[in-house]
Amino acid sequence: MEFIQDQDFNPKKNLLVSSEDRNRIPSFVSFQFFRYPAFLISVWIIIGFFIQEYINLSLLMIIVLIGLGFFGQILLHKYSRWFCLASCLFWLMIAGFIHYLAYQIPIDAFRLVQGTKVTYQGTIQRINEKYYLSKIESFSGYRPVLLLKNPAQELDQFLFQRVEVTGLFRPYLACSNPGGINFQTYWRQKRIFGEIQVYKCHPIDNNTFWNNFLSSFERTRNALSNRWRMKLGEEYPYFAAMLWGEKNDLFQDSTALLQETGIYHTFCISGLHLTILGGILLFILQKIHLPKSLAVSLSIFFCLLYLFFCSIAPSAFRAFLMFALFLIAKQIGRNTLSIHFISIAFMVMFFLQPEIIFQPGCQLSFISTLAIILYSSQIQIFSQITKLLQWIANGILLSTAVTIFTLPLLILNRLSFSSLIWTSNLILIPIAQLSILVNFISILGSWIPHLTNVFSHLIRLLIRILIILSEWSQNNIPHLFWKFEAKNQQIFGWVFWILLLFLIDLLMVKKSKAILLKSMILFSLVLVIFGFSAQPQFQVWVLDVGQGLAMISLSDNQAICIDTGGVIRNYGNTGYTILLPFLKNYGIHQLQSVYLTHYHQDHTAGIQSLVEAYDISGIYGRFESELEGGIKTTSIEYPTVSKHHHPYQIEIIPISGFQENDQALVYRLSIQNFSCLVCGDIEEEGIHQLLKAGENIIRSEVIIIPHHGSYTTNLAQLIQQVRPSLAIISTGENRYGHPDQRTLKLLKELGIPYYRTDYHGAVGFHIQRKNWKVIVHGKNDFSKMDNE
């Protein structure tokens, strides 16, 4: 990107403060704010936004602090450190105010109507085959978005039209587990606050020009899509993803390959696409001798049309803003720093769509562009080497700079990293760039049949070459590929990042004492990372699987499972969406056994995913049975003590009753000084039989309250015999009133603290030599809509 190659951070150049002003500024004042005001304001906005996200200041407090910052700037208008601090406070609170408007106001409004029938007017949009209601008229300013579920009629006919939707509103479920996704937080960060179970939907006559404009774009894209789908065949998914960001199921099959070879970003609409398109247009318009101002205007206009064509992808919007600002600055004769372009682009996007701060793709787009800016302003390629070696060295150094800046974000967002990016930037990325160029030219000539035929063959050839070389790189070039969904991979990622920083610094420092000191610092940092990341050898977790039960015991890289959860709203089968991510997070390679309390779906549905992922030596239940998918269980008919899972011991107590819930197995899992009684869904008769087993058998430190916290007359007797120091209620959204208020009252009267998975998330126990401690994964999201 030529327009960001400048000397932004050279302290001897580009000062925005004149020599006269510099003499009037006290010597202790830093010049950074006055040199890079847009950049520092952007940083303050980001910090202020996350302060509000995690601290949740009241609206009154935010307004008071904004006033202090505003009047502080007026009173301290001369260049001073206090002026900078007042400005910092002002922009921190402006960001907090935007957060309050965009998130807290909709949250408060939707909390009042959850579980009720609602009617909203808004605009229908479709993203990744899902339908959403946006621009809801009941809200002003930052309008929220709602997902539309199970519509009784086809919604394609209403795309980009104003409609009135009636249905049942429900917030997203919030299951909080290690390695898993809290969907309520995930969708809230996108400003999608829940879903409407649609009863009816009908259009409103007052459709706007803007909606008609977007609708015409959608029709044009669909026409082009259908035309090129027939021409390209198997290569069409790559073409559509690369050109306008459409990712269907066929493309998703190749995602792993593209991620491992480090070229996945070329199939996402980004600055690369806008740079190529804008560069082509500007070059052609200048070659035909159009006036410079007209060429610039047309280039910006066509890039804006393309932005709408690809649904205004955040990374493309960022690139468009930077491209437009650069051309406008050049046109009016201003030599503006590139750091200001990216800062202004961020602020414009933030004030229009605050949710961009949470989007990993947008974060990576900004931070990688910042890396390129810094690299362009600091790194000088030796002029003594040939142009080919300069190009190779530039590609390697640029990849290194981007990696240093983006790797922490990849780790924190639990994405992936491949060391093939260094070779891909030299081999695969140029081919991808050529393919993008040909794609743009082919679209411009789509209505000329002969050109379409020629370009379709060329596109298919380039895509095939790209995929073949990617497969060859994956199979033949030794490389590192880390998926940061596992904790051990995250540790390797942080260590690699620190080593990379150290090596870069080592090349720049020649003093032996400095090298020795930095080596000691590096060694200390690595030790700190391993120290903080060290996990206890033995852990027991009761997972948050909604209205169901799943408990997993960990030992090194092995696990035992008692019940596997069920199928719940938003998450579907919790085996795929909760259990497997949890096991991957802890790097579990072997699942030894699965024990089932009984055969109801909310305790067994997740087993299908476990059987697909692991070779399980035994699946046990009360009776021999064949579960869904042909999974067979082994019966346990008599009291048994299983010692096959050292150091864990599992005591199994069969229960036989007339109710289905009482045809079950009760488990007492113990290790060292920790024990947990897992009661499944046994009811009054089952509890009566369990009490007969004897106090010595069922005595435990922790009890999982039977049947998701329901109440029976002999529950108090059971708790008194177990004598737990802690109780857990595994429950979620249900129509049965679980947990029963009488159960909660009983636990309070007996002085037994308890955790509820629907409020507190997954509950874990770290087993140490002499004691054990409770770890609550937590639902510390202030926007949680459940009524506590």
Question: What does this protein structure show overall?
Answer:
The structure is a single chain. Strands 15-16-14-13-10-9-8-24-25 form a 9-stranded mixed β-sheet. It has a 7-stranded mixed β-sheet with strand order 17-18-19-20-21-22-23. Strands 1-2-3-5-4 form a 5-stranded mixed beta barrel. The protein is of the alpha/beta class. Mean pLDDT is 85; it is low at 1-31 and 781-788. The protein is built from 29 helices and 25 strands.
Which structural class is indicated by helix and strand composition? alpha/beta
What do the pLDDT scores average to?
A: 85
DSSP strand content: 15-25%
Which parts are unreliable, with pLDDT below 50 for 5 consecutive residues or more? 1-31, 781-788
Kindly report the spatial arrangement of strands forming the biggest sheet.
Answer: 15-16-14-13-10-9-8-24-25
- Say how many strands there are: 25
Work out the helix count: 29
Q: Helix amount, in percent?
A: 40-55%
Q: Judging from the principal axes of the Cα atoms, what is the shape?
A: globular
